[in-house]
Design a protein that fits this description.
CATH topology of the largest domain: Cathepsin D, subunit A, domain 1
Number of helices: 3
Strand order of the largest sheet: 5-6-15-7-14-13
Shape: globular
Strand content: 35-45%
Length: 466
């Protein structure tokens, strides 16, 4: 899902698309049936704002200008008129919607889309030329289904859309008859490419439910990928520029250690897994568990921060620094060797705390961790993890990301996730509605002796992310 944060843009460019091989300028060379679709990331320095979608019942995150990160976007050309748009890639939603050319929230001048303006009667208008718009009346291939797709945001903003189908092109690869929602009433200046399970689609929750094939499922149905799967490697806090989203395949060079196989807790609804504990280590070989229990955690590229229960955030703050009321603050030197270990049904994923840094003020680092009623492992967690989703088997595989990866070892996913090993406490019967939680207390990491035993704090039970 989208969340409110200030982010640098991250531009996904197709390097190898379903067996279409491209040269360095992405010109089409030849077609080979590889069975997967890969998009490799290039980082662009830009700030933008993303707001929280009420479909997830998440709090709206209000950041100040010191926070930075990456906005994961994809360049797509739409329709017979071949209009380019830029959309955010989001594992926490399932709908593909774009800004229409008649969007009333866009700022306009006599020359067309113009400079950012203010309208005090309704809030801020947007320069929609930044990410592009689509005029469906100029596309001969556009088919209007008439199905409404209305998205409402927590702060009262949102998008009212009409669903239709059209052809899209991604760096030379045309995908026909894709479902696309066009919004002429949206308070954002860019659209969203949701790649979550189809039952997460807004139209699936209408009074008269309508479930359609979103982009990943369309790629499978058209034979571009063998199975409705994808793997994600963000690596957003290093300078390697090697982040990638790979549809229908897995890159074994993008992770280290065990690739742990987990059941999706809310099968066919969203991509969430069972989180059992969070531990911290400070480079001395000692590891302290400051949160434990059992709760569902959403894996979401559309959320810039990691959202945890208030008590867990407070406990972490006491370990690494302080909580200033809205952010977890830590001395940057003190966290240079600090890691967080997330345990999922006995499978552990350890990520550097430096990967959670989203800004700096003086000697203090601002961590991309915020309190919330729900648990969402957003970009700050996923930047240090490798994440594979199998939406047909309702399974996820997680591993520690290989932050030094340069080469590739891509394998199509045709059956089960290759090389994934079942988590020690794997249970497909443990769903979101059957989870429990426990409570206890914690104290400061910096004051612990080596013999201290740290009690657990509460992982709040979370049953819904819709």
């Amino acid at each position: 899902m989208k969340s409110s944060t200030l982010l640098c843009s991250f531009l996904l460019l197709a390097e190898l698309t379903a067996g279409y091989l491209f040269d360095r300028d992405f010109s089409l060379l030849k077609k080979e049936n590889q069975g997967y679709v890969k998009f490799r990331g290039e980082r662009k320095s830009k700030q933008t704002v993303r707001k929280s979608n009420s479909q997830s019942k998440k709090v709206t995150n209000n950041f100040d200008m010191v926070h930075t990160g990456y906005l994961y976007t994809l360049n797509i050309t739409i329709g017979s008129n071949k209009e380019p748009v830029v959309v955010q890639v989001d594992t926490g939603s399932a709908d593909f919607w774009i800004i229409g050319s008649n969007n009333s929230w866009c700022s306009w001048t006599s020359e067309g889309q113009g400079k950012y303006t203010e309208d005090t009667s309704r809030g801020s208008l947007h320069d929609c030329s930044l990410y592009g718009t689509f005029d469906s009346s100029k596309s001969d291939t556009w088919v209007n289904t008439g199905e409404p797709l209305d998205i409402v945001y927590v702060d009262g903003t949102g998008a009212n859309c009409t669903l239709g189908t059209d052809n899209i092109i991604i760096d030379g690869l045309e995908i026909d008859d894709c479902y696309i929602a066009v919004s002429d009433e949206a308070s954002e200046n860019y659209g969203v490419l949701g790649i979550g399970p189809v039952n997460l689609e807004v139209t699936a929750r209408n009074a008269d439910p309508f479930v359609y094939s979103n982009l990943p499922l369309t790629m499978k149905n058209q034979g571009l990928i063998s199975k409705n799967t994808y793997s994600i490697y963000l690596d957003e806090f290093t300078d390697t520029n090697t982040a990638a989203i790979l549809f229908g395949g897995i890159d074994h060079n993008k992770y280290v250690g065990d690739l742990g196989l987990l059941p999706i807790a809310s099968a066919n609804e969203k991509i969430d897994v069972t989180l059992n504990s969070i531990s911290i280590s400070n480079g001395t070989g000692k590891k302290y568990t400051f949160a434990s229990g059992a709760a569902t955690a959403l894996l979401d590229t559309g959320t810039g921060k990691t959202l945890l229960p208030t008590e867990v955030v407070r406990a972490l703050s006491s370990y690494v620094g302080r909580d200033d009321g809205s952010n977890v603050m830590a001395n940057c030197d003190d966290i240079a060797d600090v890691d967080l270990t997330f345990e999922f049904l006995g499978h552990e994923v350890t990520v550097p705390l430096l990967g959670f840094v989203q800004g700096k003020t003086g000697d203090e680092c601002i961590l991309g961790i915020q309190d919330s009623d729900t648990i969402i492992l957003g970009d700050t967690f996923l930047s240090g993890a490798y994440f594979v989703a199998d939406l047909e088997a309702n399974q996820v595989a997680l591993a520690v990301a290989n932050l030094d990866s340069v080469d590739e070892n891509i394998e199509p996913i045709v059956d089960t996730i290759p090389s994934a090993t079942t988590a020690p406490n794997y249970s497909s019967s443990q769903t979101a509605s059957s989870l429990s939680a426990i409570t206890a207390s914690s104290s400061s990491l910096l004051s612990h002796s080596s013999n201290d035993t740290i009690s657990a704090v509460k992982l709040v039970k979370s049953m819904y992310f819709v």
